[in-house]
Amino acid sequence: MNIELMGIHIDKDSFIGALDKAFNLINGNKVAQVITINPEMIEHAGIDDNFKQIIDEAEMVIPDGIGIKVALKIKGYNVERIPGIDFARTLLDWCAKNGKPVAIVGSKEEVIVKAISNLKSEIENLDIVYYHNGYFDNDNEIYDGLKSANARLILVALGSPKQEFFIYNAKQILPPCLMIGVGGSLDVWSGKVKRAPKIYQDLGLEWLYRTICQPERFKRIFPALPKFLWKTILYKNSHK
Ligand code: UDP
């Protein structure tokens, strides 16, 4: 089941429901793509048809970020927000428990190395069969490495939309697995970037915390959300 927001279809599943779907895809027989959608990505899809097509063809599109939750609320839908970082972390736990090999691509070398070492010490039996930093010129070399590693879950941290294009192109090349773009998650898992305290997360105010910590983000982030919400209202009215 999904809901449409500015021409983009978003899954309506709860966190648990989405996990269930992802577990099935990890056990499945094709390469599946999970997109953790946020307002910036929807804006980008509006000006880039190729990006929109990738989202249209994704096996899962989950609502990350408070902007999506609020916009859907305006449309009359109550969805559970699914932060991509928590979703990916739960998938790692599940893979470790179920003997599924994992690969990770993205971020700076020191970040990915530290993130993997932290994850391995936190998650018993986590089997990371391949990793590569996110600064490479030849995608095919990485696809070759992934192909021989044969992981069932692949996390890709290249930022958006780069990671979505990288995953989409991999669909034609890799053996069956689930791939998910995880943005800046490795920066958090490495300890390089601090996540907002739990109270901010629970209230959907991580953006506010980040703005307080980095006031220079204010000019970029603050006008974007009301503008996005306004657009969703206009879109709703003009497409009735
Ligand atoms: N990144 C990368 N290769 C690139 C560009 C970005 O590996 O060519 C990594 C970057 O090091 C960071 C992550 O992608 O760890 C997310 O980057 P950013 O914060 O710009 O993306 P966002 O989370 O805002 O989508």
How would you describe the overall organization of this protein?
Helices cover 52% and strands 16% of the residues. With 240 residues, it is an alpha/beta fold. It has a single domain (2-238), classed as Rossmann fold (3-Layer(aba) Sandwich). The protein has a six-stranded parallel sheet with strand order 4-3-8-7-5-6, with helices on both faces. α8 links the parallel β7 (153-157) and β8. α1 packs across α5 (84-97), α2 crosses α3 and α4 (66-74) packs parallel to α13 (224-238). The relative contact order is 0.15. The structure holds uridine-5'-diphosphate.
Note the main sheet.
Answer: 6 strands, parallel
Helicity, as a percent range: 40-55%
- Count of separate DSSP helical elements: 13
What's the CATH H-level homologous superfamily?
AF0625-like
Tell me, what is the CATH class? Answer: Alpha Beta
Which segments are poorly predicted (pLDDT under 50) over 5 or more consecutive residues?
none
The chain-level mean pLDDT equals 93
Compact summary:
With 240 residues, the chain is of the alpha/beta class. 36% of the residues are buried.
Search tags:
240 residues, alpha/beta, Rossmann fold, 6-stranded parallel beta sheet, two-stranded antiparallel sheet, 8 strands, globular
Write the topology of this structure.
Layout: E1 2-5, E2 8-11, H1 15-26, E3 31-37, H2 39-47, H3 49-57, E4 60-63, H4 66-74, H5 84-97, E5 102-106, H6 109-122, E6 128-132, H7 139-149, E7 153-157, H8 162-170, E8 177-181, H9 185-189, H10 198-202, H11 206-213, H12 218-221, H13 224-238
Parallel strand pairs: 3-4, 3-8, 5-6, 5-7, 7-8
Antiparallel strand pairs: 1-2
Helix pairs in contact: 1-5, 2-3, 4-13
